[in-house]
Amino acid sequence: MMMNMNYTASKQSSPRIPEVVIPEDLVVNIALSTRYEINRAFANLRQIALGRDIKKFLIVIAGLWLLSVLGSCCNFLTLLYIVFVVLHTVPILYEKYEDQIDSYGEKGWVEIKKQYAVFDAKVLSKVPRGPLKDKKH
């Protein structure tokens, strides 16, 4: 059993969809900026891997350690949700309490500098270092 349906065309015109054009210079500028940031990140990673900047090296170790502790406490989706919530709430809280956060941040930064100076004097200065040779290929 077949049914034959005839549809009549409506007399309304089709909706107007605006033409979207992305300027070429905008795309080129974005690509150049992205390339610059990626190259800068690679340069930082190289400096960390070579061990020339011990401060960055220690910060990376601490960050990876913190990430491993957080990762062992929860699964990936929970960690992703926590990061999502934090990234959406911290900027709002910072805007609201900017003055108090900045003063605590300055006090904390001064304390971190003091502790790093002590650590540098007692531990890092006693680590023997060989001559650094940068091989060029």
TrEMBL record:
<dbReference type="InterPro" id="IPR003388">
    <property type="entry name" value="Reticulon"/>
</dbReference>
<dbReference type="GO" id="GO:0005789">
    <property type="term" value="C:endoplasmic reticulum membrane"/>
</dbReference>
<protein>
    <recommendedName>
        <fullName>Reticulon-like protein</fullName>
    </recommendedName>
</protein>
<keyword id="KW-0256">Endoplasmic reticulum</keyword>
<keyword id="KW-0812">Transmembrane</keyword>
<keyword id="KW-1133">Transmembrane helix</keyword>
<dbReference type="GO" id="GO:0009617">
    <property type="term" value="P:response to bacterium"/>
</dbReference>
<dbReference type="Pfam" id="PF02453">
    <property type="entry name" value="Reticulon"/>
</dbReference>
<feature type="domain" description="Reticulon">
    <location>
        <begin position="1"/>
        <end position="137"/>
    </location>
</feature>
<keyword id="KW-0472">Membrane</keyword>
<feature type="transmembrane region" description="Helical">
    <location>
        <begin position="57"/>
        <end position="87"/>
    </location>
</feature>
<dbReference type="InterPro" id="IPR045064">
    <property type="entry name" value="Reticulon-like"/>
</dbReference>
